[in-house]
Amino acid sequence: VISSLYMILKMLLRRRIVLLLIVIVPAVFLFVVEFTTPERIIPFRLASLKDVVFVEISQKGTSFVFLSNACAGFLVSFIALNLIQRSSSVNHRLIICGYHPVELLLSHLLAVIIVICAIALYMGILFSAFYPIKHKLVFISGIMLMGFVYGCYGLLVGSIIKGELEGVLIIALMANIDAGWLQNPIFYAGATNKIIIQYLPAYYPSQTTIIGAFTDYSALLPAVYSLLYALVLMLLAMILFLNTMKIKKS
After folding, report:
1. Residue 248 pLDDT
2. What was the pLDDT predicted at 165?
3. Residue 43 — φ and ψ, nearest 5°?
4. What is the full DSSP assignment across 74-91?
5. Of 6, 187, 188, 241, whose CB count within 10 A is highest?
6. Residue 146 and residue 188: Cα distance in Å, rounded?
7. How far apart are CA 132 and CA 155, in angstroms?
């Protein structure tokens, strides 16, 4: 696992465009919010809490949060997808050389987790430079959970879809519709079928970041649900990956 992880990280570091995307894209998103979004105060309900709790946050603050989530989700899922697809032939050769498919998938997952931590810390620093955060650690944890959920989603898509363009489109559509649109607290407050939004991947991580950024309430419950959601996606990705490698090997 360690040697495979080392090779994956080395491959990522050689691709400078990936590093540039991780640095530039979050900054661009937040700068756009800073210069285009009004400070109008908007009340909305924290949907993941059992008690009926309403908070009043500026439109700019909520936009910072949900676009941070969307950015993290898209970047991590894209990287996870890319790792699986580009490493397909390499993984096949490594299995022939004696590696177990589970070891290879775990090394990919560990590489994604390292990327998640880097993006979440960077987003936390950037966000606090634009807008005050009540609980920075909780907010960063929420971004990590968003990355973990969408990273597992990227691994799942990469295990199903072999075409690079098709995979990117599926990733971009889900991240844009889910994390970048439906999880916006302003949109969610007036949505007619909230149950659909609550079953999407970004719901619980988004709730975690909102609670941590603006309130003193506990974000433990949405954080736990985020982990469970990610684990289900990871299990599905593992099953499909093992099946694919078995077919290729035979």
Report:
1. 44
2. 85
3. -85, 140
4. HHHHHHHHHHHHHTHHHH
5. 241
6. 18
7. 34
Among residues 151, 111, 76, the alpha carbon closest in space to that of 6 is found at 111
Average of per-residue pLDDT across 163-187:
86
Token look-up 């099953």 returns 239
Q: What's the average model confidence in pLDDT over 53-78?
A: 89
Statement: the pTM of the whole predicted model exceeds 0.90 = no
**CB atoms near residue 210 (< 10 Å):** 28
Could you tell me which of 215, 237, 219 has the C-alpha nearest to residue 148?
237
Contact 116, 76 (CB under 8 A): yes
Cα angle 149, 29, 184 (rounded to 5 degrees) comes to 55
